[in-house]
What we know:
3-stranded antiparallel β-sheet; alpha+beta; 136 residues; 2 helices; 20% helix; 27% strand
Amino acid sequence: MLSTDRLDLKLDPSTDDLIIPPVFITGPEGVGQIVRIRMRRWRGEYFRDRLAGLPMIANDVVSETAALLGQPYNELKWRAAMREAILGAPTAERIITLNLTPNSVTREVAVQFEALLVFEDLTTSVSGMEILNGGS
């Protein structure tokens, strides 16, 4: 995949609304958007692929023990889910940094990451920060 290949339609990062007129997103910016989308999708919610997304809550495709919410924070489970979300994005080769900061008062987990991206014509990195909670 080249860094100029179209990856997705660009979303407004502050509202997640589609940019109008539609614009295609490419390169590290496009991979970053895909990672954000992957982190916000809950397993079991997408009708075309019920196994896509994070195992946030127990349902017919996520066991109660595999769910991230509804039980005490487990860093190993959260870290594994975040690695899957990041490394499942196109061109993401490895995670450089992954920091998880749980907040028991707000019941949120702040996720900061940086990943190495290897395109056919470019090697670079993408970084991002997401706040995940029961309302994501």
